[in-house]
Amino acid sequence: MRILAGLALALVMALQMAAFPAAAQPEGLAKHVTAQLVADQQGVAPGGTVRVALRQQIQKGWHTYWRNSGDSGEATRIKWDLPAGWQAGDFTWPAPRKLPVGPLMNYGYEGEVLLPVAITAPASAKVGDKVTLKAKASFLVCAEICVPEDDDLSLTLPVTAGPAAPDPTWAKPIADTLAAAPKPAALAAVFQPRPGGVALAITGAALKGAELAQAYFFPFDSTVIDHAKPQAIERGPDGLTLTLAPGYGFQGGKAPASVAGVLEAGGKAYELTAAPGAPPPGASGLGPPAAEGQGGDNLGLAAAALFAVLGGLILNLMPCVFPILAMKAASLAGHGGGESHAEARTQGLAFGAGSVLTFLALAGGLIALKAAGSAVGWGFQLQSPPVVAVLCLLMLAVALNLSGLFEVGTSLQGAGSGLASRGGALGAFFTGALAVVVAAPCTAPFMGPALGWALTQPPVAALVVFLALGIGFAAPFVLVAFAPGLLSRLPKPGAWMELFRKALAFPMYGAAAWLAWVLAQQAGADDLAKLFAAAVVVALAAWLAGLAQRRAALGGKPVILTAGAGVLAALAVATVVWPQDEAAELQTEPYSPARVAALRAEGRPVFVNYTAAWCVSCQVNDKVALSTHAVAQAFARHKVAYLKADWTKRDGAIAAELASHGRAGVPLYLVYGTNGGEGVILPSILTPDIVVKAVEAADRH
Question: What is the largest CA-CA distance in the chain?
Answer without folding.
Answer: 107
